Amino acid sequence: MAPAARKKVLHKVADRIEAEALELAVLGVRDNGTELNMALKAEPGSAAGTFRYYAEALDKVYGEIAPTAPDVLGLVHREPVGVVGAIVPWNFPLMIGAWKLAPALAAGNSVVLKPAETASLSLLRLAEICMECGLPDGVLNVVTGQGSVAGEALALSHDVDVLVFTGSGATGRRLLQYSAASNLKRVYLELGGKSPNVVFADAPDLAQAAKVSAMGIFRNSGQVCVAGSRLLVERSIHDDFVSMLADEAKKLRVGDPLDLSSQVGAINSETQLMGNLGFVEDAIKEGNTIALGGSRILESTGGYYMEPTIITDVAPGHRVAREEVFGPVLAVTAFDSDEDALRIANSTDYGLAAGVWTSNLSRAHRMVAGIRAGVVHVNTYGGSDNTVPLGGVKQSGNGHDKSMHAFDKYFDLKTAWMQL
Predict the structure, then answer these.
(1) What is the pTM of this model?
(2) Could you say which protein family the record assigns here (predicted)?
(3) Of 10, 16, 17, 359, which one has the fewest beta carbons inside 10 Å?
(4) Catalytic site residue from 190, 234, 307, 324
(5) Quick one: pLDDT at residue 299?
């Protein structure tokens, strides 16, 4: 299709996502347990915006003319890579699916999308919507199944030119091995995080910092890749700030994700819940203090719910400070100086996101420069949009979703060198 035709299709898809927002959100909630109020914004709301962004962007991407000798014409063409394999997780399938699908389709590729085993309903409906809006048959294919079967087949396929993935580091490593064992397809990975949220005593509003930090870890029961799961607090305000944050966490209503009064929904699965509780048990063994929560709740319903949990006295080497929980578990560590804060912030294998709370502009810039992360929030946490990239460093992955930089994954560059 010509770019103008692709634009029309993607705009229609965005319109349909908006028209079916409640249905799509409920489909996702029934799969993954995200609280509906958050799901409406984060899933169909975000996905519609993503399709619109890349619909508008696709005909603003040009080739290049190289500066050459007068008798030579050097052209740089941007061509679709071909077939994109996309594997997405269960926590925000529609949002993250759109981050992969929209730029890949806008660039003119075909996509084979593999949802998580526990969250495929909204993406299956999205595939139907795309067909109904004029996307040609076969351009978007959704293949459900176990990662060890469908995901492995996709990653080993010689017909897949680029593989994009959001999920765990263990799976990311396997996908790189599968690439090496097949056609050396490019693999772009958005993996886990152990993101530090650093609060200095001179934060402009400690009460607001506590409120935002609580939601930065406890929304969606902590099942967010950029969750601020490590709280680093300047020692002079440590006890007071932890108390403020605990008060905010106690206000959160954990319950049925389809109940509009619920502010925190369910854990995705029993396996995930048991893993979360295992981190709490290990923290106790390592001498940490459970300042709030730490237990399963609403067991009589048969559902998977967990109390917002705050663990203090955590050293950088402790398990709950090193490994991604992907649950409503916050590890709190005190620090004494800017240098101490940077050392602790950078003490994990991950580098996805971070937060800094300070009124000192010079300190803010130093922390942004010094923290090794793809995104650093200052006096806020979360909330960025499609105008800026999302990606990690270290073992949080490579490549970027969102923004114009996402196109880099879905185009090949071809040089034409012409003697005139």
Answers:
(1) 0.96
(2) Belongs to the aldehyde dehydrogenase family.
(3) 359
(4) 190
(5) 64
